[in-house]
Amino acid sequence: MSWNSFFDTLIPIGICVILPIIVVWLNLRAKTNETNRKAEVMLKAIEAGKDIDADYFKPARATKTVKSQLLGKLTGACITFFIGTVVLVISCYMSAQGDLDAEESLGFSIFGGIMVAIGVALFISFMVGKKMLAKEIEAEENNLSE
Q1: DSSP state of 77
Q2: What is the enclosing helix (H) or strand (E) of 60?
Q3: Which of the 8 DSSP states describes residue 62?
Q4: pLDDT tier for residue 59 given thresholds of 50, 70 and 90
């Protein structure tokens, strides 16, 4: 076994196995540190005899508005549609030039077609959601303006 084949095997394992494990570990570590800091503050508040807020340990997640969720769908639709279109155009161009054989061209065309279909589906979902949730979006905008 040569060093080149060793590194050719090691790099995909590192990217596909070790990297996700490190990301999950860092995320859990950050949450644990946050909880520990909150616990220390609560213990000091209890020792000092102060009132304790019951909502202190609730996660501080910013809730997305309906409008921002719909805009996220629109963004995803544009990105996937654009990627699919680019893959299809490049596939057609390269197969016309003779750079791709029929099997490779078919694979790229299927991938591009799937991406275009996902983009269209997300766009349809955006349009339907926009129509169905128009009153909720208007109510959120009125609450934010007040």
Answers
A1: H
A2: none
A3: P
A4: low
